Model the fold of this input.
Amino acid sequence: MLYDFLYLAQQTINALQQGSIYALIALGYSMVYGVLTMINFAHGDLFMLGAFACMLLAGALAPLFVTFPPFLLFLVVLLLVMAIIGFLGAFIERVAYRPLRGAPRVSAIITALGCGLLIESLTLVAFPYSKSMPTLMRNTTFELAKVADPSGTGAPLTLTITALQIVIIVVSLVLMVALDFLIRKTRWGMAMRAISFDARTVPLMGIPANRIISMTFLIGAGLGGAAGMLYGLAYPVIAPSMGILVGWKAFIAAVVGGIGSIRGAVLGGFILGAVEVLAVVVLPSTYRDLICYSLLLVILIFKPYGLLGHAPNQKV
Amino acid sequence: MNAFLTQAAKARWPLPALVILGFAIAILSQYQPIFSGYTQIILITIGINIILCASLNLVNGYMGEFSVGHAGFMSLGAYTSAVFTTKWLPDIPMLFPVAVIFGGMIAAIIGFLLALLSFKTRGDYLAIITLAFLMIVKSTWENITYVGGPAGLLGVNKMTTLPWTLFWVVVTILVIRNLIYSKFGRAIIAIREDEIAANAMGVRVREAKILAFVVSSFFGGVAGALYAHLNFINPKYFDIVKSTEILVMVYLGGVSSLGGSILGAVIFTVLFNKLEPLGYWRMAILSAMLIALMLFRPRGIMGMRELTWLLPKRELFPKGVVEKP
Done:
């Protein structure tokens, strides 16, 4: 009984780690969709760039921070990565998406696909082989509990949590709460919600729509960059292809939660993390993607607008 | 000479003449070394890409939806036809066309089921459902040992020849052309322009969408079957990157234009192969090209225009009559 409970607790910790990374990326997809009703297919590649930026920055800054506690280095790198990737996201919007705002919607989606491909192939040019991430902090493993195998034959089961897992979960939660506060309580957030409610009327009310949209891309991409850094620290071999592999899955998370909904993206991210971890417990790991995407199909059949999304009113 | 060319551009005879000439050269090339092996493979690849492009254009261009799952239909056609020719009825070259049709049929059936699911809700969800479909198909092949699992299916005979490819290109273009200029074609174009208005005018929106999607997936499967009997197949090939390549070809050539699809497939395939020595720069150049094209010509090179030769006779207007905008 206790053994099973511990096993479940261990898987929950793993699922939380995985889910919080997915949730952070999904937020970027969902925010952009909410404001522009556009799927930003370049977002996964911004996530990937976050990991690479972290690798480069950590390598460059590490000698300067020898005398400081390692957590300071982590914080500085995190903020820098978020700023760089955030401005890159806003830049892409300015150069590639804004000129197409009047064009057919598909043109913007194709441009986004093109931007994603461009980022990925340029990263491949710079780093043709997968790179290993430097360790930013000492990764202590904390042993929370230990139980002997009830059958008496196997090794005892220990419930562990690593410092890195704690950092990943805490940093993601802090970012999510901050975002929720920004969107619900500040004037910027109110303007964002207003644009997603009615993009045509809002500029008439004197709200600088373009600035708000740039801001949305900046925040969304910044969160994606932070997710890339956390992912890179958790799975320290990074490659340009992870933008596609992880990015598309986070997109699924955003859709499951209800694309356009901020809380939905977080919910979707954690659900996806839980499903991935549980799927590997029950079935061989090669079935993981099969189960994730089948789950998406099933959810979309019964709830076409996602768990927390709502059907848009169609105006004739 | 110039006058001859202008006249030929407007006349009806050049297209059948070109097709017959093409078949003559293609059949002759099987017995005489007209093309090198490399050129032949490039030509067949161009043909397969034209089929993929034209069929995807039916959904993404004429119907105005956004499907990203075409590589999934391609892999369905590739695997089922390859299983047909290697495991069920092996070593009977006569049955190759049957295998190709079989691959297309399986893709069409799955396409039908997918269309039933996806056209319940608004446009964006097709993109999401086809994405999920693509991943599910790829993951399924990876987990079935009967078709070789992640290593891919081995021992497929190289039966795709230039005449067969040309035959299927002609069939695809003809079927899709006739479909678009039929009553049904008007219906899907009306759906693209305004779904609610089309519905109000008596278009059966869901039926028209499902039919277009099924036709598109059938030819996706056919292209896959042709591909399977030319190259080595492996689940990883038919992933989102392949779908993106097809999308790039469609939007490069131009939406709602079969001439554009042909042009896009030719330009993309030739560039893709010519730029091979550039390594990873190749994809960077192609994607930068795509972005620039979208910014300056959002509908692609031949977007919303058609090659005059491909238009049916009644769509051509005699001199003095104002052309349709």
User: Anything to note?
Assistant: The CA atoms of residues 280 and 316 of chain B lie 45 Å apart.
